[in-house]
User: Fold this.
Amino acid sequence: MRNPYDILGVQPSAAEADIKKAYRRLAKRHHPDRNRDDPKAKDRFAELNTAYEVLGDAEKRKAFDRGEIDAEGKPRFQNANGFGFGGGRRPHAGAGADPFESFEFGHGPRGPYQRSSGGPFEGADFADILSQAFGGGAGGSRMRGGRREEKGADIEITASATLEDIANGRPLRVPLPGGRTVEVAIPESALDGKKLRLRGQGQPSLGGVAGDAMVSVRIAPHALFRREGRNLYLDLPLTVDEAVLGASVRVPTLTGAVELTIPAGANDGRVLRLRGKGLTAGKEHGDLLVTLRIRLPETDSRLRAFAESLREAGSYKPRGPEFG
Assistant:
């Protein structure tokens, strides 16, 4: 494996904050959900995670700099008792690492308990994770150092996001037990109702690894827009003269207002499409569909006189023969 400093694109003298910033930027760019057409995306993402597991933990980073562990975090030398230098647990949020690197989306071929390749779980039998259930969620166990460790229970969490959060790429704030809050990028899959997995953020375990937090993303209702997938829908009120004569009307979007041309003679209920003004997630771009809604004034003697003249002249026939 390449040097983790090279993978993250930072110098050996880089501060912890710079390492974390570099990881966040690259993880967002190379996540497999954003690169579904690239067969090498998973390998790059796994390599990135492994690099951050080494450099994101202060003790592991020192051990790597001293040459005691390699780029994958494995001991380079062993003492007579067979124990390596520079060992340690996988970093968790609040202990020198950000939980962003450990979440997974959806369900892979191994089921909901997937393993990230290249990490400290390499070679573990993840069927053991499903062997027990206790507490508020699925527990389990695994072999480590010649002994079986119990995995803590998973927990279910709901986190809210607004349409503006998604449109502007703002992170999702996830409340965790104990009053802590972590921020993670909102993945494309969250728009389809899939859950995020935050590894190691569930219930603790005595002598073992903590469970995971399974996060459901709730998209808050909006005062103007309705959402269907990545498309947004908006009702646009129009005056009678705007509908009859046509007009240019300012229409709000999630990223700022735009001018929409209303064609002359527009009927109530007509739908105009603003391409690319819906939600953007990964390579998918939604549209904003604007439904025209003509609104009559409360009192207008001129409009009433005009309507009476239309009626006296026989008006026009908006309904066909099928209406009887």
Notes: The first strand starts at residue 104 and ends at 105.
